Amino acid sequence: MKTNLRLIGGKKLQSPNNSYTRPTTLRVREAVFNILNSRVENSNWLDLFSGTGSISCEAYNHGARKIIAIEKNKINSKICLENLLSLENIENRRNDIEVICKDVLKWTKPNYERNLSSRNMDLNKLKFDFVYLDPPYDVDFHELVLNQLFDCDILKKDSIVICEHSPNLLIKKSTLWETIDVRNYGQSRLTFLINVQHT
Q: Within a 10 A sphere around the Cβ of 147, how many other Cβ atoms?
């Protein structure tokens, strides 16, 4: 187990000893939370393809109220939970976080029975303010997951979906979402999307 992954502020996190996991870089995480700023506080946060949970941990440290992380790899989902449970004051917030070892493509389907995955909260009623979508760079799951996300009932009217992806990938236009911002950070690009019904 490697511990060279660090949160904003310097806390070390665990990460697996393999090349299959690509944690979001510190530079990108700093950018995300600088852009969102105080809006993260008291928000509901969904972390898709969460890996070892660096984004979920940052959301917790920036004041998110509820955090759900979805990761289908059993080893990574276990590390994600351990990283979250290592955070300050987590013993008083245990019921506010959930790491679910499921396939994101299945979990984001409209009408999927999400509550079967959770002991701590009613996920069929929970709606998210922010969704972070970060599939492997060498596969393009963005469009499929985005279509499912914007077609189901887990987003609020003014939710923001943040896609991390390769600069070579362009998130296509859609009748379901609108691109409000695009930022490049080295080998990563962030695309910020909102529902087209956003007012």
A: 15
pTM: 0.92
* Domain that includes residue 190, residue range: 2-195
61 by DSSP, 3-state: which?
Answer: helix
Give the Cβ contact number of residue 114 at 10 Å.
21
The DSSP H or E segment spanning 81 is helix 74-85
* Per-residue exposure over 12-38, b if at least 16 CB sit within 10 Å of its own CB, e if not: ebbbbeeeebbbbbeebbebbbeebee
The domain tally of the chain equals: 1
CA atoms within 13 A of residue 84's CA, in its CB half-sphere: 29
Check if the beta carbon of residue 123 is closer than 8 Å to that of residue 97: no
If you write DSSP's letter for every residue of 123-177 in order, what string do you get?
TTT--EEEEEE---TTS--HHHHHHHHHHSSSEEEEEEEEEEE-TT--PPP-SSE
CATH code, domain carrying 176: 3.40.50.150
- pLDDT, one tens digit per residue, over 89-135 is 999 999 999 999 999 999 999 888 776 555 666 777 789 999 999 99
The token pair at 48 is: 């898709």
SS3 content of the chain, % helix, strand, coil (to 5): 30, 30, 40
